[in-house]
Specification:
Number of strands: 7
Structural class: alpha+beta
Helix content: 25-40%
Radius of gyration: 14 Å
Order of helices and strands: HEEEEHEHEEH
CATH topology: Cytidine Deaminase, domain 2
Shape: globular
Bound molecules: zinc ion
Strand order of the largest sheet: 2-1-5-6-7
CATH architecture: 3-Layer(aba) Sandwich
CATH superfamily: Cytidine Deaminase, domain 2
Length: 138
């Protein structure tokens, strides 16, 4: 398992989330978000938020990164980074917390970063305690 201590953020993962953020499609909110997931296989998958004219309909950065990971055949997340605007500590929305938990153990680290670096690290379990998870259906 490629899990790391939540005190030691993966700098390559943070950089990927920060870099992805520049490509967010956010003509309505102007709120750029980038996400990067480290799969158990070691690969990094990135995503950005994508809005449309029926705003607030759209896709979150985390959901886009999960879709890229699943497309590649990976099914387990080892670490997560989410990047927002400078000075902000952003965390995944409620729906994305459930989506992340689908592919993550509760102990997986979630780093909130801005363009200057990591601002906060918590776990999926911190963000979605007492989650209804795949283990309930197995
Ligand atoms: Zn979301």
């Amino acid at each position: 398992m490629a899990e790391k201590s939540k005190d030691l953020p993966d700098t390559e993962l943070l950089a990927a989330a920060i870099a992805a953020r520049a490509n967010a499609y956010v003509p309505y909110s102007g709120y750029h978000v980038g996400a990067a997931l480290r799969g158990k296989n070691g690969k990094i998958y990135t995503g950005v938020n994508v809005e449309n004219a029926a705003y607030p309909e759209g896709t979150c950065a985390e959901a886009a990164a999960i879709a890229a990971m699943v497309l590649d055949g990976e099914r387990e997340i080892a670490e997560v980074a989410v990047a927002g605007p400078e000075g902000a500590i952003i965390t995944p929305c409620g729906g994305c917390r459930q989506k992340l938990r689908e592919f993550s153990r509760a102990t997986v680290a979630v780093h909130s970063c801005d363009p200057t670096g990591c601002k906060q690290t918590v776990t999926i379990g911190d963000l979605l305690p007492h989650a209804f998870s795949p283990e309930h259906l197995s």
